[in-house]
Amino acid sequence: MSRTDRTIGIVLGLVIGLVALILFVFGGSGQTIDAPSLDHSQPAGSTTVPTGQK
After folding, report:
1. CA 40 to CA 34: how far, in whole Å?
2. Dihedral sign, CA of 40, 44, 49, 54?
3. CA distance 39 to 41
4. Distance between CA atoms of 22 and 15, rounded to whole angstroms?
5. What's residue 40's pLDDT?
6. Region for 4 from its dihedrals, namely left if φ exceeds 0, alpha if ψ lies in -120 to 50, beta otherwise
7. Is 26 within 8 Å of 36 (Cβ atoms)?
8. What is the C-alpha to C-alpha distance for residues 25 and 20, in angstroms, rounded to an integer?
9. pLDDT of residue 49
10. CA–CA separation, 52 vs 14, rounded Å?
11. Residue 6, C-beta contacts closer than 8 angstroms, at least 6 positions apart
C-alpha cells in the first residue's frame, strides 16, 4: 500500500464520517425536543429565577 493510497483512504473516511454526522444532526434528529436549526437565532439554554437570598 502506497502512502498516497493511505492518505486518500484517511481523507475519504473523514469526509464520509462528517457527511454522516451532518446528515444525522440536521436530518435524523429533526423531531427531537432540542433539534438543531440554522434559521432560528434563539439562544440555547434555560433561564432560572432565584427563589430567595439569605
Report:
1. 12
2. negative
3. 7
4. 11
5. 60
6. alpha
7. yes
8. 9
9. 74
10. 51
11. none
Q: Provide the terminal-to-terminal Cα distance of the chain, rounded to the nearest Å.
A: 70
The set of cell numbers assigned to 6 is 493511505
Residue type at position 25: V
Averaged pLDDT, groups of 10, the chain, 54 residues long: 94 97 78 64 65 69
Full-model pTM: 0.51
Q: Which residue blocks in the chain are alpha helix, DSSP H?
A: 3-23
Residue type, 11: V
* The residue type at 23: L
